[in-house]
Design brief:
Helices cover about 80% and strands about 0% of the residues. The chain is mainly alpha-helical and about 130 residues long. α4 packs antiparallel against α5. The radius of gyration is 30 Å and the shape is elongated. It is found in: Mitochondrion membrane.
Length: about 130
């Protein structure tokens, strides 16, 4: 290691230690923010089953309707199968498939609408259109 290499290493080390106060301050500030977020999460009450059901039904009412329609068609179809009514059982199974399709379409469209609503509120700004 020559004198020039030692001098460059010493300069690089002094540059790193000079910026460490700012880095310490930044990391301390980050920890304060993290602690505040944790405290906020601790204050959140757990959601009960009924409150979650009400919230989900309010957000996208077609999905629970489709799920209940699927469950109803399946139940009636299985009951008719047990009773030996093959024709009615077959029709209920077909209705169940249609209800499942409706539920999937409602779920996907609800997700799409929620994503576009979030994008329209300005929560998501692509980097290419950021004015900075």
């Amino acid at each position: 290691m020559g004198k020039s290499d030692a001098k460059e290493t010493k300069e690089a080390t002094s540059k790193n230690t000079a910026g460490s106060k700012d880095d310490d301050y930044t990391s301390e500030f980050d920890w304060i923010q993290i602690r505040q977020k944790i405290e906020n999460y601790e204050n959140i009450q757990e959601e009960t089953f009924t409150s979650k059901l009400k919230r989900k039904f309010g957000e996208n009412p077609l999905v629970p309707i489709g799920a209940f329609a699927t469950m109803g068609a399946l139940t009636i179809g299985l009951w008719n199968f047990r009773l030996g009514k093959k024709r009615m059982s077959q029709n209920m199974m077909r209705l169940r498939i249609a209800a499942q399709g409706f539920t999937v379409v409602a779920l996907v469209s609800g997700m799409f609408l929620a994503a576009t609503a979030t994008a329209n509120k300005g929560a998501f700004i692509p980097a290419a259109t950021n004015p900075k």
